[in-house]
Amino acid sequence: MSEKRKIIIDTDPGQDDAAAIFLAFGSPREIDLLGITTVAGNVPLSYTSRNALILCELCNKPEVKVFAGCDRPLKRPLVTAEHVHGKTGLDGPELAEPTYSLQSRHAVDFIIETLRSEPAGSVTLCTLGPLTNIATALQRAPDIAPRVRELVMMGGGFSEGGNITPAAEFNIYVDPEAAKIVIGSGIPIVMMPLDVTHQLLTRKDRVARMRAIGSAPAIAMVEMLEFFERFDVEKYGSDGGPLHDPTVIAYLLKPELFDGRVCNVEIETDSELTAGMTVIDWWHVTDRKRNVRVIRKVDADGFFDLLIERFARI
Ligand code: RIB
Ligand code: CA
User: Fold this and answer.
1) Which atom of ligand 1 is nearest to the CA of 13?
2) In whole angstroms, how large is the CA radius of gyration of the chain?
3) pLDDT over 70 for what percent of the chain?
């Protein structure tokens, strides 16, 4: 990666969101983090916003601006995931309430104003939660779509199916209408579905390497992951849980770790049974627009080597 990548992280922390944010914090030579925008998802907006501030303070990043965004999906009632993330969304470690404060601007205004003021094609959107903020920004300011360099998102599922319903992955399921708007926006999109993230298990040896870093952020991350993984270990019987969100940042840092193809992706919004399903035309059996680069392979050892190396730099 030559020049610093200007990014906005849109997130619903979330222990795995925390790992993505830490990865960005540990990569200042490659990443220029313009701001963090929070959205309701894993837990309500009040918690996701609080959590983003906690993560900045834990890593001694007072300069990072956090903007609270949408507190509910475009049309549907909010569905949250306390059963996975705990009541606060960052259950696991003992964490003090943040002393850092939110910015006064709404996240959607920040997204619009940043994309309008930064040079066209220079800002990457990194989405780790439901796409409500991004869709709202696109609805309010359609002119920003061609100004986005790329949108890298964690969301969706192909042969792995869903994790919140048999058909849908959580980020898409919470706000399928928002996902439909974003997917159809013409923005260059890279999608990290469950098919990739389920290859990235927080195995005991990997968590032990994180713990050995010994810093406050590393220890807090270990305690978050030990809480977060219990649900998936129980569900899948695996050694550790899938680490979803850091794939988005890792893709910016080392795209060579990943492999996929550009194909058509559509979002189911009408069916009750399959709402939020990402219908991925991997084999190009339709002539629908090939609008998303869908990632399906990852070098798992290379990913965790990167993650642990960068955590140690925070
Ligand atoms: O389905 C996994 C995704 O939903 C992750 O982003 C997790 O943080 C939750 O938001
Ligand atoms: Ca998330």
Assistant:
1) 8
2) 18
3) 99
Q: Which of 313, 247, 248, 256 is nearest to 28 (CA)?
A: 313
- Residue 2 confidence (pLDDT): 67
| Strand blocks (E) in the chain | 5-11, 31-38, 66-68, 123-127, 148-154, 189-192, 258-267, 278-281, 292-298
- Summarised one tens digit per residue, pLDDT across range 163-207 is 999 999 999 999 999 999 999 999 999 999 999 999 999 999 999
Residue among 83, 106, 244, 284 flagged as catalytic: 244
CA of 130 to the centre of ligand 1 (A): 8
DSSP single-letter state for residue 96: P
Closest C-alpha to 87, from 95, 99, 75 = 95
What domain count does the chain have?
A: 1
In the reported structure, the alpha carbon of residue 286 is separated from the centroid of ligand 2 by a whole-number distance in angstroms of 31
Task: Find the domain containing 10 and state its range.
Answer: 5-201+243-300
Cβ–ligand 1 distance for 171 under 6 Å, the answer yes
User: H helices within 59-151, ranges in order?
Assistant: 82-85, 107-117, 132-140
Mention every residue, 6+ apart, whose C-beta is less than 8 A from residue 200: 242, 243, 244, 246, 247, 298, 300, 303, 304
Residue 130 CA to ligand 2 center (angstroms) comes to 8
The answer to whether the CB of 26 is under 6 A from ligand 1 is no
Which residue's alpha carbon is nearest to atom 1 within ligand 1? 170
- State the CATH number of the domain containing residue 123: 3.90.245.10
